[in-house]
Amino acid sequence: MSSSGHPPRLLDQVRGALRRKHYSLRTEEASIGWVRRFIRFHNLRHPREMGSREIGAFLTYLAVEEEVAASTQNQALSALLFLYREVLQIELDADLSITPAKRPQYLPAALSRAEVRAVLAALSGTHQLMAQLLYGSGLRLLECLRLRVKDLDVEQRQLMVRQGKGGKDRATLLPARLHEPLRAHLEHVRSIHEQDLREGFGEVWLPDALARKLPSASREWVWQYVFPSSRRSVDPRSGRMMRYHQDESGLQKAVRRAAQQASVQKRVTCHTFRHRFATHVREAGDDMRTVQDLPGHKGWADHDDRHPRPAPWAWRGA
Question: The Core-binding (CB) domain covers which part of the protein (predicted)?
């Protein structure tokens, strides 16, 4: 019951269930959005009055009329399954009649060594350092953005990826050439953090369980993001003023501009750097298990055989 004595609204129930299961804010916002669109699509009918047929109709509409990507359709399906199973406690029919969205078969751009260097050279500042980490350490974009100071181990020449895809931790390489740029970057970030502390702020977001277990950790240097946002913002869950990590759109736009400036006539994204990392590790002579384990992806080896192999320079001082 809410404080007013009335049952909580449906969307508040969904939000509460997601938070109890410790889903990310990104997942929470996306799920709430899909539930809202589903209800509006069916003229504001309550989901209890609907079921598998209505879900199928909505998802088919997304594929046929909206022409959404297959991943978007799957995201909508996951949100609605969560609504029915976890919130409404209603078991749906096993067979959902859905017209699946078409899944395009994209191959990552096979950049040559010269093309990779040209794109990296066209970047500058923090964006260049981030792209070098994507390429030299095989990181996904969000894995890079979510790095904390404590995850970098210069002495061991490695960094730790926490809660990567599938909720798994892994260690990967930290290129020697990036040690000095990272040190200078962290000095600047630390000065920002110390200024925040002097002004009465300095908190960073921590998962709920960790925030309760270590209440003072959110202000400690080691828990700060390696790539913090340029401005503080209010955390939507706690209501406290914090400094979050940078938004992924910044680097995505910078990489597209850099590819244009470098006259690389290929589709270059942040993920392109991660893909080339696997190729270069293999080219350097590491075995298949290393290629699979370092990036945290079991499909690297088979996917990589489709492309020519440029010279290895990414992880040995990239």
Answer: 1-88
